[in-house]
## 1
Amino acid sequence: MHLRGLSTRGARNARRRAWVATVATGVVAAGLLSGPAATARPDPNPTLTTMSVKSPPGGANVRVLIFHGSAAAGDESPVVNAGIEAIEKIGLTGPTNQRYQVEATDDASVFTNETKLGRFNAIVFLTGGGDVLDPEQEAGLEAYMEAGGGFVGIHDAARAEPYSDWFTGLVGARPAASGPTTVQRATVEVGDRRHPATKDLPVQWKRPDQWFNWAKNPSGDVHTVARVRESTYQPGASANGADHPVSWCRDYDGGRSFYTGMGGTVSSYDETDFRTHLRGALLWTTRLVQADCKATITGNYKAERLTQPNQPGQNDQIGEPHGLVTAPDGRVLYIGRGGADSSQPVITDWNNPDIGKGKGQIHVYDPTTKKVTLAGELTVFGNKGGGDELVKVEEGLLGIELDPRFEQNGWVYLHYTPHAGVNRDTQMAERRVSRFTLDLATNKLDLSSEKVLLTWPVQVHSCCHAGGGMAWDSQGNLYIATGDNNSSGFSDGYSGNNPKPNYKGVSFADARRTAGNTNNLNGKILRIHPETDGTYTLPDGNLFTGRETAEGGGKTRGEIYVMGVRNPARISVDKQTDTLYAGWVGPDASAPSTTWGPAKYDTFAVITKASNRGWPYCMGNKQPYRDRNLPDPTEPLGWYDCDHPKNESPNNDGLINLPPVTGNNIWYSPQGGGPDFPRDANGVPSYKQEEATYLLPWLKGGGQAAMNGPVYRYDAASTSGAKWPAYWDGKWFVGDFYDDDQPRNAVLTDPKTQGDGGLPVHSESLKKIVPIGNDGIKNLMDWKFGPDGTLYVLDYGRGFFTSDAKSALWRVTYKGGGPTPAADQLARGTQ
């Protein structure tokens, strides 16, 4: 063990500065690199800065040094020879301009030979670990990195220099004191689809190796390119959990560092994919190609609150947040549902003509002026406040979208419940989707310009589930998400299928009347094609044509694209693929029941075609509920058949035989993500909690409310310096209203299986980037990317059915810069 006091470190720093100057002079004199030079990390003493115009180590004649010195006694590990041979072969293959020469040594004195070390573009640590460098040698390695060098650490390199904080930063993490020691086959999730070390690998890469657990998870401090899925092997007591990085990189101390925890076996180096992995790491660290190793480092993002708290008694900044949309010119339009602040009256008496009257606000944020304009207010039914099922209400101003030609016509589509449409006698209301015109110069909405496209009845006697989200596809089709308009009670928190409660003949606790009904627009995702005259037509490929009249006169609605959803507040469409993404809130049961079925499952789905997503018959991966019917809804009948569901409710006025249920991609309960159970011969799960397995271990719920997000698409042509990096391109953002154990993740799905409910193949948390906590974005209500590639997020606030001082519009921007090395520092010019 080397004792390194402050005086020793000071001496080492002085030597490092001198060494940097020597390397730079030698490299330039040797003519190994022509073109502009690298700029090292600023020196704390300006008079000693030496690298402002000097070149990084190595040059156009690219060389790689393999260091395999070890502090361990005994014969050299066979892994070393296998690694050296593999790296040598990698250097001799591929395009001529991406080849390199290799030299291997176990002599640590190379790190104090400034002239020799400066000849190498990258250093590979293929070492058995231990304290392999003395203070002067480590100072040489530090100076090499400061000068712009490259480093690749493989497997046991994470055990090297155990007393050096600097080396810990270089490799990124240290193995835990305990962990599995045997070789096990596991699945590696390759999340970075752009880095040269991973872009050509399978997303789900199955391979044997020795897998380290980490004493401290490096995620957020390094850029993770691959993770190992712990559910596919035995990680031991010191497991890292769902986020278990295995390969990562970072720009470090003036140079480039790449580390992989793989490569602990001789056979690793015979694998084509592992050699591809190493090759990509070496291409970047030697400066043969550029790569982005900053995209997931937490410190490279800035979350900024854009709106201020409202002035007392006003909604000058924000209403009760309920949705947002971004315009092509960067403006953000966001809506308030209709709940008022605490100074406004809340009327719950049905004898009062103003029952539930509220204001649904539309605000416009202009990023150029940083000003908020109240564009307009609709008088809505949606201000009854909280309370039990027969008092509160979730109606109001529910959704907003902009016409595809918004920049020319200023058309805004709003999904809302007008107060004027309320029938106080029957306690029914009208929901509608209307088109309005916004004055693009003043940001004012012309309320007299309303064109009503679509209306349908909703019961408002009992809360809940209004849905509200809207989205366009590339063909000009408008998707409209509607909730099941069904009470959360009366079914013990399981399937909302109690046929008995009603008000003046209209059921309010039987979602078979709505979500499970082919002749009802509630509990659906509708798809229509708005026309310029304010009408709409029906595109081909919806779930029904509207002309089905089989089975004794049952009917359908041609607007239905997806049926069987409970409360889809947020939907999005990836216009590059026209794939629909949706999320919906589940029921209230806190645990599964062997009598009634699954616990509450909040759900996310990738929807590639018209389909039935199951509610109230089945949830998750086609897990059925138990039927109940008259005369006694408390007595269970048979289990629903997810492949052949039938709507035999007395409240059904649509088809009896329904389309088969399509399984969903993501579901989670208070117990965990993706709960699944053993099934009997009829396919019915046991629903015994002790028998559950969790297919999505990165998820857990509790109080939960799914908030679907966008798929990010990187715009290379954009000149925005704040846009999110290309790393996130194609990743789907899924989140929850709550921020405790609930998701706020970016996920990848397999295009071959996603439309049939295939599980995500990779997921990573966004909670350090889209900040959680009371002073962050605690209650996520909506999130969308703007045309400049920045993320806009609505925080609902800390109350319900109101706005408060925490209700706000936020923006999350990227400030990490572009790929490295700079184009003018590539070893052989731009590749």
## 2
Amino acid sequence: MNSIKYLSNNTALLRYVVLVVLTLQTGSIFAQDSDALDKIQPHTRIVKHIDETDRITLKGNRVSQLDNSVDTGRIDDNLRLNRMILNLKSSPAQQAALDAFTQAQQTPGSPDYHHWLTPAEFASHFGVAEQDISAIKNFLTSRGFQIDEVAAGGRSIQFSGTSAQVRNAFHTEMHQYIWQGEQHIANASNPQIPAALANVVDGLVNLHDFRSHARKQQAQTNAATPLAKPISANQTQQSEILPVSEIVIGTTNYLTPADYGVIYDVNPLYTSAINGSGVKIAVLGRSNILNSDITSFQSFSGLTANPPQTIITNTDPGIVSGDQTESTLDVEWAGGIAPGATVIFITSSSTVIGDGIAYSASYAVNSNVGDIISLSYGACEQYMAQAETNAWSNLWQQAQSQGQTVLVSSGDSGAAGCDASNSSTAVSSTGVNGLCSSQFSTCVGGTEFKDTSNPSSYWLTSNRSGSTANALSYIPESVWNESASVSGGSGLYASGGGKSIYFSKPAWQVSPGVPADGQRDVPDISLAAAKHDGYIINLNGNQWSVGGTSAATPSFAGILALLEQYNGGRQGNINANLYGLYQLQAKSGNKYFHPTLSGNNSVPGQAGFSATGAGYNLATGLGSVDANVLVKQWHNVNPVSSSVALTSSASNFVSGNPITVTATVSGAYPTGSVQFKNNGVALGTPITINNNVASLTTSALTTPGLTPITAVYSGDGNNLSSSSAALNETVMAIATITVTVSAPTITAGQNITLTATVTGDTPTGTVQFYSNAVKLGSPVSLVNGVAVLTTNALTTTGLDNITATYSGDSLNTGNTSIAVSETVLAAKAQSVPALAVWQEILLGLLLFTTLLRVQRVRAG
């Protein structure tokens, strides 16, 4: 009994051990087997009859706010609850394989490095089996629910029904509550499901209307102010969104994309035509926006018109106050930093208990829309039910497997992440944004410029001619904190950060300054967020200034769009690379990051975390970035494999003649040089690569024969060194041919022997002899470099020019000899000998006989 009790109390531990073993085993498989993914497939796990009387409770499916709320009773049974989300889970073996696979996707040299999946491929390996999804759908419809959507990734189902149907199917009542003066709807207890579904169903993630909130608060009572009206000091302190009339007013400087280009070193990328072209940024929202605002912002910023694409996933939410501001900011600044990128605005209507942001996020991932996903909303992690945080983490892991990079703002309430940023004091202790605490998202915090003591060192007093920029250089940064805990501040406005209560520290979160707390720490990265140097936006036809981590997040999405264009496409989860680069920087490498020099995110009622410039901190993470260095040296921590393809201007050429060899290097935008070699011996000095290509023209190849040419690439911070395959070139010898004759003088028609001797690289082929350019017979084959012709065809008297032409072969050039002079004499006249006497008598008798015959013929 004791052992049974021990096992029961340690089920979670045993499951964890099994999962670790499975992960290690499958990790090894993925590292070695290019077909390992094909072996992972979903299997049916609902194998028992669905018995309504045999039920289990889904723990972690009730929000903790209810513990401090006033229950005002059950809601109307007929209240329609649209688009509830039933979250499904992979099997332990599938999850272990998924963890190993997503790690392999980020490991250079792995067969699955940057092997991104489609949602359908994800479902075919890591989703729930079709038979199980059908069984769950049948269960829901049998209880009266309507099926709205089965996610393409195979791990969630959206369905709708009434409050009474929820009570009957899941054995939990829907009640009304009052929490901190707000009225809410939520399930009074954890839901129950038939035990047969337990292996597949993870939880009901939105049986409440405690929705995520924009990380930037809506403007208070400020009306849209005409551009001629100056900003006032009290406005600066009272609101996070401010009307502005100029880019520079007194000592306050407002950020434009052109300022960003100077401060964060983006301009060198722009001058190299790196502007995000070909990259898609998905901005998530739950309000519509005015395209005229985007057009005005781009025109004001001097950008080429590039309107966003808008996708409405369910019904048009229309213009929603506050949410419109957030979405407008995100769309304008994502495209403002990456003016060549395609910004896709995905928006969804919220339902009675459904958060439009959750629907937008699900659409972006399950429709694979956006290489980069930018989300400026959040919810207190400790207020979220664990099933809900699991659902967000699972969704972001699917996004990683598809190569999508997820950016989420860390929050604007400092260390008190569970309190509203406009609150006067914190009451809920520390907390972080549960939408960014997963290891599969990159959490973006906020800094502020340390420019108030000497602004003229960093800002011009007016904008440059023809530009909206007045920034002079990078400006040192401290933790963004404009809360009431600092002079001139108000509320809890400061960079969100701290440690997760649900997620353990991922293996990659290692760098100087990272706490040894065993938990996932956020944020990962930060950019400017202070209202003091706020971001200009165009909203409802007017210009405003906005602060907060919700401005830093889409701006970093723009920088990542430049990074993806430069480095060849989707990067997936960038966190391991970020922390790896920071470790390199700590070893005196390139300055990818600007460490945060000072400050903290303490707010009234809650002590926070401090920065010293010495390393990572829980207020701004790794600090801000130097965009040019980050983009161009992205692969320094994990250089990718390169390859060299070698071509030449000719496959064969004459010894000593010029030839051009060209090496084309493939990799992550390789730089460095290429050394060309002949038989392993260097040909000249290394040639610098220009646009992936290095060429060498040389006349140094003089040794006849088959010559192997290779090209050796040096490698750089992003690319491993590599060598080309040998390109076998044929160097042809310059053949020489000489002719000799057997006699310098002959008489016409006399036999003469002509000999041609060919020198070169063991020449073969034939020789054609000529006399005065007229062929003498047929070509004669060479034997050991010699061709011989005996002829009596020289009959023209006088001086004849004898030449020989060598045909050439694969290793020797053809050639013609120098002419050899041959004297041909006329033949001597021959005398006729006298006839003998008897010959004369006989000839006479013949003649006499002939004459007699002629006379007789006439007489007759």
